[in-house]
Design brief:
It is a single chain. With 287 residues, this protein is an alpha/beta fold. It has helices spanning 10-20, 59-74, 103-111, 145-153, 169-179, 221-232, 252-257, 278-286; strands spanning 2-5, 23-24, 27-31, 37-41, 49-53, 79-84, 117-121, 130-134, 137-142, 159-163, 182-185, 188-190, 196-198, 209-217, 237-245, 260-263. The protein has a seven-stranded mixed sheet, with helices on both faces. Helix 1 (10-20) packs across helix 8 and helix 4 (145-153) runs parallel beside helix 5 (169-179). Bound molecules: ribose-5-phosphate. Ribose-5-phosphate (R5P) is lined by residues 164-165, 167-168, 196, 214-222.
Length: 287
């Protein structure tokens, strides 16, 4: 088995390859002067089963993934397993307003043309681990919440797990079981893509170490609002773990609003990506 990493997942890809005992494939990934992506496979793949790991934060990474999968097919790979740890466009899984593009469906329709299997991690529109059909497209979803919970288990004295909205309740419940603590959720209303309103609700967090786990942090609006509410209700500390550190407005605003912040390496955020999903991906592919 040969594993190729796209440019967004170089370090994660290396770890997954080690977990799988796969050879690392080499490719040249560059940009043409006009910004278009140049791609060349340097490792022969004819008759080989290949894994390709690439997150699609940003349109360039998405195009790179499409080019890469088709290239492996053209070069004669016998099987292609696409692993998209962070699947972009997943938040547009419905037409929330009349006439809006169902972008999650469109992106998956394109992606699923090329590989034999498609695997992702905490896909935004799924709330469980397993195999799913989305508009007839099959994909495997891996849950990294228990890994985040395990990271915090010995670091927090008196934890209480808080889901930032009802959507992540199932994941949060699972993670709370892994820590052996109570859990609750917040009522969130999204006002715009930049602003959220967290409704005031009485929580039993006074004197406790609140832990918020979320699938992603984008602008940080959700976490900043949630941390403010938890602190106003007497939480001794507020820690945050998220699977996908998108951080569209940078990480500093979120960091300064909480006591500790950690994300996984579905998107490589250097030291903040302290939890690796490599083992989960390798295990899922082995299955
Ligand atoms: C929402 O349903 C998600 O679970 C996240 O809470 C949300 O996408 C985070 O976005 P932001 O950081 O922009 O508030």
């Amino acid at each position: 088995m040969i594993l190729f990493s796209g440019s967004s997942c170089v370090s994660l890809g290396r770890k997954v390859a080690a977990g799988l005992g796969a050879r690392l494939g080499e490719a040249k990934i560059d940009r043409f002067p006009d910004g278009e992506i140049y791609l060349r496979a340097l490792t022969p793949v004819k008759g080989e089963e290949c894994v390709l790991v690439q997150s699609t934060l940003g349109n360039g990474n998405l195009v790179e993934l499409i080019l890469f999968m088709d290239l492996l097919r053209d070069r004669g790979a016998s099987k292609i397993h696409a692993v998209v740890p962070y699947l972009g466009y997943a938040r547009q899984d419905k037409s929330f307003n009349e006439g809006e593009a169902l972008s999650a469906k469109t992106v998956l329709k394109v992606l699923h043309e090329f590989p034999d299997t498609l695997t992702t991690v905490n896909c935004h529109f799924l709330d469980k681990e397993g195999s799913f059909q989305f508009h007839g497209i099959e994909l495997t979803n891996i849950d990294a919440f228990p890994l985040l919970a395990a990271y915090f288990k010995d670091r927090l004295k008196n934890p209480v797990l808080i889901a930032p909205d009802k959507g992540s309740l199932h994941y949060a419940k699972h993670a709370a079981e892994a820590i052996g603590c109570e859990f609750d959720f917040l009522q969130k209303k999204r006002l715009t893509s930049e602003k959220v309103l967290i409704e005031t609700k009485k929580l039993s967090v006074a004197g406790k170490d609140a832990l918020i786990l979320d699938d992603m942090i984008s602008t940080g609006g959700t976490i900043i609002e949630a941390a403010r509410l938890l602190k106003s209700q007497g939480a001794a500390s507020v820690s945050v773990g998220c699977v996908h550190g998108v951080f569209s407005h940078g990480v500093e605003g979120v960091k300064s609003a909480v006591d500790s912040l950690v994300c996984t390496d579905t998107i490589d955020r250097g030291g903040i990506s302290a939890v690796s999903v490599a083992g989960l991906i390798a295990k899922s592919l082995q299955r």
